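Structure (tokenized):
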């Protein structure tokens, strides 16, 4: 599915979103769950390109619903993985950094057959501009995880926002409070994003919002400046949403 010319949302990647940027070479934003790798590779073939043309994989953050497909994709391409240092760690079996896993697995140094470590080739600096699609600015937006980043394509006013903010059915929402996330840093990151002008929002879940995205985001921030607390969210809002089959974003519509 092409969102705008050369920017695709890979269809059928379940729960989380994987985006593909098509130029002379190819770039992925995130990799989805482990079983999304096959879909990504098939989609690349379907649009008449080849996996070996994939040069870079930009990670928005190191949660398994976004990094799980990386090994399956790396098997078929020589892509370089790019992620923020704060979502990586040193691992004695590799030179340099690897993607961090969530929770206790991050710090385990022994080999676990079900946990492969993905090497990270490049750790961008704040505001670094990557040579993709006319210049892709790296914005460090910690909170959801320490190393969450958004990638901003200035040419098209397009923001790849990972799990920092999402859109669905034309509405923008914040990510739900998450055990382990940092509410204060998250709030500061949202303020930085509210000062940015972007027309198109491609979040890590939901459906992309094309047109007026930053306006929609600012109006959400003005309407509902506070996020629910973690316990409010899980003990009040989640049960009511499950009863009414509604989505699990942090906003009540
Ligand atoms: Zn996440
Ligand atoms: Zn996610």
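Design, position by position:
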């Amino acid at each position: 599915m092409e969102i705008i010319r050369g920017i695709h949302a890979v269809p059928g990647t379940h729960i989380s979103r994987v985006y593909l940027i098509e130029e002379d070479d190819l770039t992925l934003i995130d990799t989805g769950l482990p079983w999304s790798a096959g879909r990504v590779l098939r989609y690349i073939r379907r649009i008449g390109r080849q996996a070996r043309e994939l040069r870079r994989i930009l990670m928005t953050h190191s949660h398994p619903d976004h990094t799980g497909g990386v090994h399956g994709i790396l098997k078929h391409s020589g892509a370089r993985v790019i992620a923020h240092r704060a979502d990586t760690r040193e691992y004695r079996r590799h030179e340099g950094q690897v993607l961090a896993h969530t929770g206790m697995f991050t710090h385990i140094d022994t080999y676990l057959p079900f946990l492969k470590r993905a090497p990270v080739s490049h750790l961008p600096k704040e505001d670094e501009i990557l040579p993709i699609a006319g210049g892709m600015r790296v914005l460090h937006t910690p909170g959801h995880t320490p190393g969450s980043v958004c990638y901003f394509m200035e040419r098209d006013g397009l923001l790849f926002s990972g799990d920092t903010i999402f859109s669905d059915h034309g509405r923008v929402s914040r990510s739900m409070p998450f055990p382990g996330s940092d509410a204060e840093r998250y709030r500061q990151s949202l303020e930085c994003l509210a000062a940015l002008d972007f027309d198109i929002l491609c979040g890590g879940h939901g459906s992309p919002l094309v047109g007026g995205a930053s306006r929609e985001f600012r109006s959400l921030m003005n309407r509902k400046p506070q996020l629910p607390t973690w316990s409010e969210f899980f003990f009040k809002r989640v049960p009511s949403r499950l009863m009414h089959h509604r989505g699990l974003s942090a906003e009540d519509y």
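Reviewer-requested clarification: The first strand starts at residue 2 and ends at 4. The chain has one domain: 2-102+116-223.
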